[in-house]
Design the sequence.
């Protein structure tokens, strides 16, 4: 029989930063030196956004989990559409966290990685001008745009310090495997739903941090787990916590058998 999950025996204030011990309970990253973790939030009816963004579903505790996973990660993987629609910014870490990462032989700030056939990114966006230049996986043989346009976009991104990586199989699961091969053992996946669905489908998530917002909003928009194909994976619930505005925080581990 499996053991019962741990539960944080207090109701966290929704708009206050968790203490260090509370944050470590939520994350459990202290002795974790590798693995793929996913961080996601949804409403009770499964929507991954409210008013177009995932942040509108969360609170300070949820944001603290996101930032804690960024502080742990070697790289942050995000789908290109999520980067565009949410005006994504790079990770911002305080000086103490950066020094701790350097002592662990990590880069001071983790880069964001994504994949794109079109390379259609605004070179003035905060995503491009993050403290750690992003990584973009692409495949010139899979693009549907004019090759001259593709080459021009690639050149512009290179000029802004972006690393472009050609990969023969341009899928989220292939990108995750390539990131590991390139020396990024700690990977945090932040969405969006299509990206998360692909990686879950191939059973590559070791730990899933799932926040559930106590709201029902119809119609359900952008479901967090879109039905792209048929599969079943069983997860083991490790820990739970709540905040005083009703958000539920769950940490699941991939079952190995």
Sequence:
């Amino acid at each position: 029989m499996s053991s019962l999950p741990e539960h944080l025996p207090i109701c966290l204030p929704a708009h206050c930063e968790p203490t260090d011990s509370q944050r470590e309970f939520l994350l459990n990253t202290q002795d974790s030196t590798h693995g793929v973790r996913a961080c996601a939030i949804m409403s009770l009816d499964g929507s991954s956004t409210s008013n177009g963004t995932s942040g509108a579903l969360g609170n300070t505790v949820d944001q603290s989990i996101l930032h804690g996973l960024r502080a742990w990660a070697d790289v942050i993987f995000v789908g290109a559409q999520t980067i565009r629609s949410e005006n994504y910014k790079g990770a911002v870490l305080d000086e103490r966290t950066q020094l701790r990462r350097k002592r662990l032989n990590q880069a001071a700030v983790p880069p964001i990685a994504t994949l794109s056939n079109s390379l259609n990114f605004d070179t003035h966006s905060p995503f491009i001008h993050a403290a750690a230049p992003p990584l973009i996986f692409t495949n010139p043989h899979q693009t549907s745009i004019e090759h001259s346009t593709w080459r021009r976009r690639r050149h512009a991104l290179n000029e802004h310090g972006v690393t472009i990586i050609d990969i023969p199989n341009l899928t989220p699961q292939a990108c995750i495997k390539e990131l590991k091969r390139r020396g990024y053992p700690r990977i945090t996946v932040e969405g969006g739903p299509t990206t998360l669905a692909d990686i879950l489908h191939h059973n590559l998530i070791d730990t899933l941090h799932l926040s559930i917002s106590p709201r029902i909003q119809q119609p359900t928009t952008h479901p967090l787990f879109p039905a792209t194909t048929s599969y079943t994976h069983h997860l083991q619930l490790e820990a739970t916590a709540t905040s005083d505005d009703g958000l539920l925080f769950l940490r699941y581990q991939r079952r190995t058998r």
User: Anything to note?
Assistant: Helices lie at 20-27, 60-72, 80-85, 95-103, 147-159, 172-181, 193-201. The mean pLDDT is 91. The first helix runs from residue 20 to 27.
